[in-house]
Each structure stands twice: as C-alpha cells, then as structure tokens.
C-alpha cells in the first residue's frame, strides 16, 4: 500500500505538466475534491469523525492546511516553470530545512552526521539549481520549489501538535483548509475561463484530485498502521525516484551528470538524516 501511494505521488509532476490550468486552481480543486474523496471513503468504511478532537485542534489544523495549500501552489508552479526532476529534487531539500529548524522548534540536538547531511544537500542544490551551467533549469521554477520546501517544516511542526486527531480527520480538515485558502487566490490572481476545461484537462485534474490525493492518502494512512517509521522513511523515496525517471523517459527532459550528482547528494542526505543514529551501549 505504501509503495503504491509513493508511486502515485511520483507521477503528480507528469500529470501537472499536461494540465493546461493555473497552479492555484489545481491546488484548490485537489484540496476540495480530495477531501470529499476521503469523506466518501470514511462513509463506506463506516467510520465517524471525532468532532470534539477536531474542534479542540481547529486552529493548528486550519493553519497547517493553509500552509499545505500554499505549498501545493508553489510546487505546481515549479513543475510548470522548470523540469519535473529539478522541481522534485529541489522540493526534497525540505527534510534538510526541517533539520535546520529542529534545534530551535523541537529542541533537538544537531549531530555531526546531520551537519554533514546538510552540507551534502547544499552541494547537491548547487548542481540542481544550474549554478554550474545547467541550461534546462529555470531559476524561477527552482525558486518556487524552494518556496514550497520552506513551508514543509511549518506543516510538520504544526502536525506534531495534532496527536489527538486521527490521520483521516486531520487530513480532511487540512485539505478543506487548503481549498479555502487557495480559492481567493484562484479567483482574484489567476486568469482562466470555463473554455480551459477541455475533456482531457478535466480527466487529468480529476485523476490528480481523486487518485493522487484521495486514494493515495487512504493507501498511505492504511499502510502506516503496520509499518515501522524507518520503513516508511526509506520507502518514501520511491516518490522522487519515480518522478526523476518519468521526467527523463516520458517528458524527455534533460538529465545529465549534474542533475544525477545533485539527486544522489540531496536524496542521499535526506534519507541518511532520517535514519536512526546508533546509541552507545548503556545509553
């Protein structure tokens, strides 16, 4: 189930590439239709929402959902402006940003191994960003992906406060909040019309909303109950690997040695930083 969810997440960039609609509109639709898909799933499974827990945690739920909506808009715009591989790998700098905020927000110690991971990821970012002459990379797209990555620590830190809200309830409220936040931006700042909703655009949009959001979240949360955290951390890197492969094979986007080096450094650093550190005996 987790592998299937990660594989679905890895194809979002390709689907976004072929949807001729503004990023905010896609994010708004994903939040609304994705939430409705999860509500339908809960109804079929005969599960009831814990309304009391939701009310007690409404503010952090809405704030994390707002950050999620902004995160999607920035990431979809990054997919629209630069290659899917560059946008995905830049976005996966997010776990490194969380490492940097952890000593201040979570009072966690920054070990030597994690410092090395941060340095390796920074070097990898120089390869991905085109500093060394990557011709296919759009600096604006990289900036949007970094903006999305910057919001990731906020989403995680807020979510850590939501321990009494179950995963499905939390995600439904967050998705609805994401839709509510992106709707004004979509209506006021973006240019689109009903004529943009061609048959192919609607099919692709519904696929992203229902399959990549509703179904993927249901698979993800269903898998979490029976897997160790370390297994989840390792398998989550199926997402960027599939995105990079599809970028090169399906979209025919250039992927040379600079991008490959950046991918190894960023993904390797992020993965190693998430693995548990060995404690000395007796500690």
Could you please describe the fold and organization of this structure?
There is one protein chain. With 283 residues, this protein is mainly α. It has one domain. Helices cover 75% and strands 0% of the residues. Helix 5 crosses helix 10, helix 7 (94-105) crosses helix 9 (139-159) and helix 7 (94-105) packs parallel to helix 14. The longest helix is centred in the last third of the chain and has 26 residues, at 199-224. It is globular, with a radius of gyration of 19 Å. The relative contact order is 0.23.
SSE topology sketch:
Layout: H1 2-10, H2 12-17, H3 23-44, H4 51-56, H5 58-81, H6 84-91, H7 94-105, H8 112-128, H9 139-159, H10 167-189, H11 199-224, H12 229-235, H13 238-249, H14 257-274
Helix pairs in contact: 1-11, 1-13, 3-5, 3-10, 3-11, 5-6, 5-9, 5-10, 6-9, 6-13, 6-14, 7-8, 7-9, 7-14, 8-14
In short:
The protein has helices spanning 2-10, 12-17, 23-44, 51-56, 58-81, 84-91, 94-105, 112-128, 139-159, 167-189, 199-224, 229-235, 238-249, 257-274. By secondary structure, the chain is mostly helical.
